[in-house]
Amino acid sequence: MNRLADATSPYLLQHADNPVDWWPWCEEAFAEAKRRDVPVLISVGYAACHWCHVMAHESFENEQVGALMNDDFVCIKVDREERPDVDAVYMTATQAMTGQGGWPMTVFATPDGTPFFCGTYFPRPNFVRLLQSVAAAWRDQRDAVISQGAAVVEAIGGAQAVGGPTAPLDAALLDAAADQLAKEYDATNGGFGGAPKFPPHMNLLFLLRHHQRTGSQRSLEIARHTCEAMARGGIYDQLAGGFARYSVDGHWTVPHFEKMLYDNALLLRTYTQLWRLTGDPLAARVAAETAAFMIDDLGTPEGGLASALDADTEGVEGLTYSWTPAQLVEALGEDDGRFAADLFAVTEEGSFEHGTSVLRLARDVDDVAPDVAARWERVRARLREVRDTRPQPARDDKVVAAWNGLAVTALVEHGVLTGDPVTAAAAVRIGEVLADRHIVDGRLRRVSRAGVVGEPAGVLEDHGCVAEAFCALHQLTGEGRWLTLAGRLLDVALERFAAPGGGFYDTADDAERLVTRPADPTDNATPSGRSAIVAALVAYAALTGETRYREAAEAALSTVAPIVGRHARFTGYAAAVGEALLSGPYEIAVVTDDPIGDPLVLAAHRHAPPGTVIVAGSSGQPGVPLLADRSIVDGRPTAYVCRGFVCERPVTAVDDLVGQLARR
């Protein structure tokens, strides 16, 4: 009996017709394993995962394999995006046992959830042998299996420990982190490391902030070159905007085609900030196109943003996105077809599979003659029309709280800096979904789908990313309710997630108990829960003047600081928040009747130091602490600049405001 038909997770629903007696993650599944005296097989993946699909087709859809699984195991299917806590515990176990991790993740555990054998993808013959071997070991070598499981739990408990060494995250450590990134930088292709190569969005945000604080041209050049290389590569969708998860090579040519919301949200912030600091037209275009991709391609009818577009189309990677020269000519005609082949580096040999190519941008289109720019736009629009007639990748349409929070913050930044009302309005709509659907009885839920909120409780990253988003919406709208909501989430985090010594656990103290309580301080594909909550605490403290939130942020950052100095690539968001704290952060209040278009407001956003909070509106506006007791001077809109709760004299001229922001 497969029990996944009523799941809210698209990933679980993909397996609802398997000949496997799948259970969702629940106490009843473990009770059934205990009753039957059999091990648990925990299979963890997500809807857009290519190799998850491969293992499903090879094994989970096979009647004989399903029979083996049903006879000797209780089988549990887990969506890692719905249950990041479960994923974190068993991924740590998998890495401890195998030295690596990934998805699909395959874990064999005792009926109490203790893992004793872990792996990732197994081809069907290997998987069949593994099933038979584990079943035999459970029958004939039970004591050894249980002993191995106990050793694994002890190891992962140590790996997830809190209360380690602490240090202030000061300028010296942040400078050392920037130096370390510079040493690991790929000066030829941009980014860090080799294949597969992931967009280092959080490291780039840190480097841009480091450049602002120190004037480091090296930090700026690393960020600028990496952003340009990615934007010109196949990892970026040259027709519709948006970035794929990673490049399978070291030079951004061939992507792993899934598109994740969290990558695009973080990259939107990166390109927006690069444009703000440099005026780079490529950065401006890519930011605008990425925002449009998120809104148009990931938007849900309820107003949120879907999690991902699949890596596969009809079981084939790249089917939607690859081209041959002949296909370009067929779509565009002879002249434009040759123009497009040269522009997008489409050759007879191909850059992908079977003589096809992934579109890359081989020529400049951002600083060219108007007729060339017009031709480029016409060709791109026509190719997009043709591509839209092809089979399309599936969409994982669940709304994940943390990732939608990241998107809100990015869209607000883009909206206020560019004056784009579309991105600003989208940010508010997403915020309404998070506030109205995901907060239930005062507590945050992790996911919703089709307007129905799921059962999984919000983890620390959800609280941090959503609280930071609500702080951004407070600055965008001047509405006090967003700040109130942010404060409530942060109070829950401080009460329920705090750990000894200033750190945080990733799950609440009243959450479901797993074999260990995860507390990962490192930033990986998304900000760690700890980095996310610190970012929100810093912004909230600056907006309200309540110092206990800043003190909590500084204490939490001190638990990450020793890692920042040694592993800069895995602490990018923490380092970016550290730059905000070193900056002040600045607090800017503009008293004006035009909170969107006033030149003082525009100048504040364009010249703000790292982490600055900015509010604009009427004096004493309800629910906006930064506007309390602030008035206009000489009948003119007036800006108040403070840093660490110490304020400069109020100014009414843009040049004076810019001068105050430059004195740092």
Structural commentary:
By secondary structure, the chain is of the alpha+beta class. Strands 1-3-2-4-5 form a five-stranded mixed beta sheet, sandwiched between helices. Helix 23 (599-607) links the parallel strand 20 and strand 21 (613-617). Helix 16 (401-418) runs parallel beside helix 18.
Key terms for this structure?
664 residues, alpha+beta, 4-stranded mixed sheet, 24 helices, globular
Work out the strand percent.
Answer: 5-15%
Terminal Cα span = 65 Å
Class based on secondary structure composition and strand pairing? alpha+beta
Largest sheet: 5 strands, mixed
Judging from the principal axes of the Cα atoms, what is the shape? globular
Fraction of residues in H or I helices: 40-55%
Tally of DSSP helical segments: 24
Instruction: Report strand order across the widest sheet.
Output: 1-3-2-4-5
Overall mean pLDDT: 93
| Spatial extent as radius of gyration | 25 Å
In total, the number of strands is 23
Structure described in brief:
With 664 residues, this protein is of the alpha+beta class.
Walk me through the topology.
Elements (H helix, E strand, L loop, with lengths): L9 H5 L7 E3 L2 H10 L3 E6 L4 H11 L2 H10 L1 E6 L4 H15 L6 E5 L5 E5 L4 H17 L1 H18 L11 H14 L16 H14 L2 H16 L13 E2 L7 E2 L2 E2 H18 L2 H18 L9 E2 L2 E2 L2 E2 L4 E2 L1 H8 L1 H10 L13 E2 L11 H19 L6 E2 L2 E2 H18 L2 H17 L1 E2 L2 E2 L2 E3 L2 E2 L6 H18 L2 H17 L32 H16 L2 H20 L5 H12 L2 E6 L7 H9 L5 E5 L20 E6 L2 E2 L6 H9 L2
Parallel strand pairs: 1-3, 2-3, 20-21
Antiparallel strand pairs: 2-4, 4-5, 6-7, 8-9, 9-14, 10-11, 12-13, 15-18, 16-17, 18-19, 20-22, 22-23
